[in-house]
Amino acid sequence: MRTGISMHVLIFAVMKPDKQQVFSINNQEQFNNTTLQTFQYQAKTCKVYADFIAGLRIDPATVTSVQQIPFLPIEFFKGHSILSSTDDVQVTFTSSGTTGMITSSHYVTDVSWYEESFRKTFKLFYGDIKEYTILALLPSYLERQGSSLIYMAQYLITQSNNPDSGFYLYNHADLAAQLNKQQQAKKPTLLIGVTFALLDFVEQYQNDFPELIVMETGGMKGRRKEMIREELHNTLCKGFGVDAIHSEYGMTELLSQAYSKGFGIFNCPPWMRIITRDTNDPLSIVTNGKAGGINVIDLANINSCSFIATQDLGKIYEDESFEVLGRFDNADIRGCNLLIA
Description:
The chain is an alpha/beta fold. Helices cover 33% and strands 20% of the residues.
């Protein structure tokens, strides 16, 4: 029996999951099998991850369930090249941060994995992109290089094939006029914005656009006083005249995103999962809806590392949706920091 497991793992170790396998996952068995295959592949091909596993004195051949997989601390993306591929790097995504802060770098050797991930995820949660006008209020991200959020927003704006879709910096009057135009034309509209910019906007302009989808991506960046999620969402709901605020859970180190359509409850696409770990024992998994550190399995990260231990705190519900409760006290303040709920 022991030999059978080892042979099974050995076969997986030399096979790299392809896009078809990852993005066609539609049940738990497929997810588990692809996740174990990805682990064996990256434990062999990602040097930083392999060294980390060795430092834990874990033999990859003994990992036969998803629950046994070790998660790489997200801090390793600062100062290390996390790569499971020898191909040339096509794009480098970098995190934002205050002056003097060491930022993360995610080296992407095949950006089509990222495009496939967010394109399929958008369709899964919101439908055909061509039915929407996409408005992006992302000033802090537009003002720097290497933002994965800007890359995604630009792609969605282009794919919407709508001349009214576009970016806004600090030209709030133009955005207000466009929102009024959208409402009068009764066109489905999604406004994606960094938190502080959305708050700045509703302080100047009050809207009554109940059909509008407002998606906040987090991020105060020291521009405003931090707010609890309920206070923030109530302010934005009143400012835009909507019933709920949508949210994105994503980060530089991931190529997939989870989305919330309100009340801070997020859902993942089929190739992404959240697992919570014990805050005192990072190798122990927390169950039964208890709060813990958020570990992310992102199978779109096939060419870097798919198993990331974040500095976020969260809770998972029975239907696999999750809530972000805050951050570890000793964690760096991220440029796209999440709100304390």
